[in-house]
Structures are given as structure tokens and as C-alpha cells.
Amino acid sequence: MREIAQKWGFKGLYPIESASEYLGGLGLLSYEVARCFRKRWEGNLILEQMERTGIRSLSIVLLTAVFTGMVLALQMGNYLTRFGAKPYAGRILALSMLREMGPVLTALMIGGRVGAGITAEIGSMKVTEQIDAMRSLGINPIQKLVLPRLLALFVMLPLLTVLADFVGILGGLFISTMELDIPADFYLTSIVQFIKFQDLFSGLGKTFFFAFFIAIIACHNGLQVSGGADGVGRATTQTVVTSSITILVSDFFLTKLFLQL
Fold it and tell me: Which end of the chain is more exposed for a tag (fewer CB within 10 A), N or C?
């Protein structure tokens, strides 16, 4: 089983022994990153990664959010009409976007796009021995490669989530007024009166955990690449799968946590 898992690029997932090694590697990388927090930050590298992570991902995040809001409004409006509760469609949609759909879908999009890109970039540097060259010159690759990407995700993922929430609610507004005959002023007023700061805080609080998971998994997989271009492709696929599963699983436990606060 171990040989089959390594052959197909699932080292770190199967079997259980490899899973523990993988988790141990993530823990060691997290420890190294924590040590780099006390050192001098590379502002230019962080800004560059923020542009790559946030600005270049804006279109796919907003497109996902607006159509998610439109679908939610259409589905809930039609079903709530059966119970005479159609006016509550805006409240339920806003609550769903702020607490769950906005943070989770944004993290999944970023994990697929940015996470795969980070792994491919660092993995290419690994197979071409650029990381070994950095170490030989006394440059810490964790500080130069991992820390800027982690900090960029810490900043940009919450901002992208806020924009996704806003655009998703606007998408729901469009469908509510055009398909459900709900007045726009009633839709917006009901949301403002119903939504609390705790709902926004619950969603945004998850994004910092999601950002950490995406960055650590992507960077770790990139640093562990071996086997040339084929290894880079396998590591990129593993990053998308692992980060997506981690986001979905952690979302359940984070939801339980924030409901207790």
C-alpha cells in the first residue's frame, strides 16, 4: 500500500504512518514560520504576494459569489413561498452568505487557484535546486518564500470574503426584485435589521484559519517536491485536494466553536 501511495503521489495521505509523517511535516513548517515572525519582514515580497493572491483572484471570487447569491435567492424564494415566508428570503440568504457560503466558497476558490500556484512555483524552484542555492548563500527559504505568502493570505482572504459576501447579497437582491417581486428597500432593510455583528465576525474569523491551512499545505507540498516536472504536477494536485478537504472539515469544528462564543 505504501509503494502504491508513493507511486501515485499520495505520500502524506496513505497509509496511516505516512499521514502522521505528513502532519509532522506541517507542524515543523508551522514552527519554522513562527520563528520567522520575529525577524525582519520583506515588505516588497508581501505586497507582491498580496497582488498575486488578492487582485488576480478577484474575478473568480466575485463571479462565484454573485451566482451563489442568485441561486440561493431563487431556491429559497420558491420554497419559502409555499409556507408564506417569502419576505424572509433576504434574511436567510444574508445569514447563509455571511456565516458559511462566503467564507467557505472563497477559501475553496483561493485554495484551488492560489494554493496550486504556490505549490507549483515553490516545487519548480525545488526541482531546479534554486532552494538549495538559497540555503548555500545563507538565505532562509522559509522567510523568503513561505512567510510572505502566509501573510498575504492572512490579509487578502478576509478582504476577499467581505467582497464575496457583499456581491452575493447583491446577487440575491437582483433575483429577489426580478423573480420574487420583493421590493429592494424591504430586502435591504430586513437584512440590516436582522443581521448582527456576530454573524459577520463568525464568517471572517474562519478565514484566518483557512488562510493558514492553505498557505502551510501549499508551501509544504512545494518544498517536498521530488521527481522533476511530474512530481510538481502530483504535488499541485495533492495541494488542491488536501486544502479543500481541510477547509471543509475545519469549517464544521470552527462553526461549533463560534456558536459557543
Answer: C
